[in-house]
Amino acid sequence: MLNLKSAMVGAALKQALRYARRNPEKNIPKILDTAKSLFPDRYRPSIEAVRHQVENGVYHDLLIRVLKNIDPVFLERLTYNFFINQIALGVQKQIEVEKEIGVPGPFTILISPTMRCNLSCIGCYAGKYTREDDMPPQLFDSIIDQGKELGTYLYTILGGEPFVYEHLFEVTKKHSDAVFQVFTNATLLSDDKIVKELKESGNIIPVISIEGWQTETDQRRGPGSYQRIIQAMDTLRTNGVPFGVSITYTRQNAYTVTSDAFFDFLIDKGALFGWYFLFMPVGKDPAVELMPTAEQRKHLFETVHRVRKEKPIFMMDFWGDAPYVGGCIAGGRRYIHINNKGDVEPCIFVHFAVDNIKDKPLKEALNSYFFQLIRANQPFNDNLLLPCQIIDQPSKLREIVSIAKPRPTHDGADVVLTDSHIASFLDKYSVEVRSTFDPIWKELFLTNDVIAAYVQKLCREREEHKRKLQEDTNEAKAS
User: Fold this and answer.
1) Phi, psi angle pair for 133, to nearest 5°
2) CA distance 317 to 78
3) Which of 78, 154, 214, 372 could form a disulfide with 108 if both were Cys (CB 3.0 to 4.6 A apart)?
4) Sign of dihedral through CA atoms 146, 151, 157, 163?
5) Model confidence pLDDT, tens digit, residues 1-36
6) How far apart, in whole angstroms, are the C-alpha atoms of residue 397 and residue 87?
7) CB atoms closer than 10 angstroms to residue 337
8) Could you tell me which of 376, 371, 271, 381 has the C-alpha nearest to residue 326?
9) Vertex 79 angle, CA 76 and 81, to 5°
10) What gap in Å lies between CA 445 and CA 105, rounded to an integer?
């Protein structure tokens, strides 16, 4: 019955998209009026709020950009896969999985099928790998099959550089019912063959890494990188391929990549959304001096919230937006990362694992003691603006690793734990960040009764998870 309803809604969704594209300004309000008459009364205030934003807010311009600029076949497939397969069918499957194994299926699964890259960027944890280190395509395919059984239809593909992986399109085309967000340096996206494959797949959204203007980008990614990014953006926009950007936020580029001029440039080039990731002190020789200061993190938080109200591009702050997902989502709570070797890691930045997908099904790997221990400590901080076990609550990562004893999955992965200089730096850094964000948390979030109650609920669940995990551990030892 759910599949039938989803198919009917999906067909209606496609028809609505086609109708909206004919005359977006005129037809979008009509579609919302129809929805208002069809949905139960309790949904009408939400639909009215959406209509207000679409007609009067910045999202009107963003939606117009989407409808006018994206290839229609691309738009229909992405919309159907995300809203019907991922949100309608997928979420229901995730709930069923939680009843079975105690944790819902991941909202997204991060996969690095290759760690090879045609660039050598400063601070990149990928390092140098060869083709022999690539994930076999059969394993890549199997991970997605297993993921869909858990209700996951959204996949984030990382590397290395994913577009050097020869089997990328072979696998994504096979899974035409899923959405793939592919993080890329963009150097290959102007190739006619790549563009043709993207349009034929219709389910891949490139997310282009950019560090700022030419000086900042070429300084980290090598001479000529910025111009190749510009060329790639122009090529994707011309061909109606939707794309976003990924920005590593550092102490050096903090104010450049949050300037109005930079946002206007991204909009002009056709970017629809953007992710900000704080520079993380991971890898063999982490450059902690590149980490943004507490004040720069505050600036990012404030800027992202302002820009979402003012400009037709949806920017996201992976740390500052943590309150909307209940803090850290790693360790199988809402996502995991599987590297090229098949190691099942809790987070793209936490390079430790106890299981390998070659040896254990994904469903079982989600419930490893390592992952259970991570989830039993989430949220790591009662202030959800400080979600991270690496930089915001570094003692938690040390404690969890010391108890679960996972193995490092990359050369130098344990440096963040064993190097006394880095540990001391992070301890001091976390105190500074907390003193900056505690007043913001109290003023903007805890004054809202709904959010305050939600945080209390999360904290109660955390204590219950800890208690149950301890009971299970004691029982296992006794037996």
Assistant:
1) -85, -5
2) 23
3) 154
4) positive
5) 556 566 676 777 778 778 778 887 777 777 777 766
6) 32
7) 22
8) 381
9) 105
10) 28
Residue the block writes with tokens 């963003």:
62
Q: What is the dihedral of CA 173, 154, 115, 279, to 10 degrees?
A: 150
DSSP state of 106: P
- The DSSP secondary structure of 251-309, one letter per residue, reads TTTTTTTTSHHHHHHHHHHT--EEEEEE----SSS--GGGSPPHHHHHHHHHHHHHHHH
Helix (H) or strand (E) holding 123: none
Question: In this structure, what token pair is assigned to residue 402?
Answer: 């010391």
Integer Cα distance of 387 and 396 in angstroms: 11
Q: pTM of the full predicted structure?
A: 0.92
pLDDT in tens, 387-399: 999 999 999 999 9
Best CA proximity match to 104, nearest among 332, 371, 297, 275: 332
* Alpha-carbon gap, residue 343 to 365, rounded angstroms: 10
Residue labelled with tokens 């009764």: 449
Residues of 213-248 as b/e, b for ≥16 C-beta within 10 angstroms? beebbbbbbbeebbebbbebbebbbeebbbbbbbbb
And the tokens for 31? Answer: 């579609």
